[in-house]
Amino acid sequence: MKKIFLIATLVAVAVVLNPLQASADNRAKNRQEVINRNHGFYKDILMDSGVGLSSRRTLPAASSLGLEMEYFETPPKKTMTEEDKAYQTYVICGGEDDTNGWLLYPDGAPRYRMIFVNGGNAKVHANSLPKEGRDRIVEYVKNGGSYVGCCAGAYFGSAGGYSSLTKKSRHTQLYIGVWPGYTHSTNVRKTPFPLTIPKRSPLLKYYDFGGDNIVDKVYHNGGCFAYDGDVKPSPKGTEALALYRSHGTPKIDIYGKTGIWAYKANAKSGRVVLCGSHPEGVKKGERLELMSSMVLYAMDGNPAPKTKGVLKSGQVREMNKRTEDKAPEYTRIGDKQYHHFEVKVPRKCKQLKVKLAGYEGENGYDLTLCAKRGEVAYKDNTSHKATSKGCDKEFTVNKPKAGKWYVSVLCETTVETEKGRNGTTYVGNKGVLNGVPYKVSVEY
Asked: The whole model's pTM is what?
């Protein structure tokens, strides 16, 4: 009898534990799926530690997730030079050897999966960028790059600040508005307090935060919440990811206010995740998981890859336009970028010949050619590919199945990096930043 009771008890425990284990497994799977979805980007994250912001050089969440990150920074105000400010402008706006800036490929596609904007002084940082630079970040998000900002980064990413005490808006022409709502200051400084993760928060796809949905002692210093009052309601589509679990000050009770939130304008844009507090520097525990989940959810919002057009039998498509031509369907390819094309293979097709050719005088570049039926082709998911050095290559698919095929071109050539006074600097073959021209064609 005791033996039967023991077996029944073990079965009951297994029934209780298995769903929990499955949930943990699903979270790990969800994390890995987002991490692996990095095809066609130069790197995962660009961190903005520029003028007016904290001079952060590491992001523990990126390291713990195994993500590739670069950063730029400027020294504190007392030691900052005009050259430091100019470097920030070069990174965002570009220069002669990079007319797009680091965030964008020649065709306007996002070069990094995400930009992270640090805490500090949002107004100072916004003023340090020319309008062209602020517009460049807006374009980056519009074209599919994601944005994460903590404290000053949250203010900067909003459409402006609003005070329920003074009934006035601020900085509406200065902040970039990738989240088109208004932030409200908490008036709380140098104080850690807890955040609650709502049951429907998408952050729970990645971590369970100890099972109680509370992240304790998250540092806060003059940050904000997503204002949702009668005068300035939050835009439709704003998602509350975490809520403040503190009353703040008598004048502004922040209990239950949205301290972390997300927004995605449409299917083609990137996702914006804004946070009024400071989990970004923590190296372990639930606060690290909180920042990691914000990064993952932001990158999970990168849109699906787009195709450049349809390749027709016997017609050569020339991809030789530059950024300033404003013809993204025919623009050169950037470093580590993929260009995808559709091919409609007819029934009873005997051969599909795919050909790639470079341009005379454009030397020192390596392009890879791929093809796959039914889904976009990547170097690591198809057997139909040519990966030799140089730009010129071709292959033949015998008796291809009828239907939609995809031909893809990957630029293997990229820049080399070094660390300098202002963070990451590029060396080596920087010509690739303005794109590599090529010709692609099919015959069937």
From this structure: 0.94
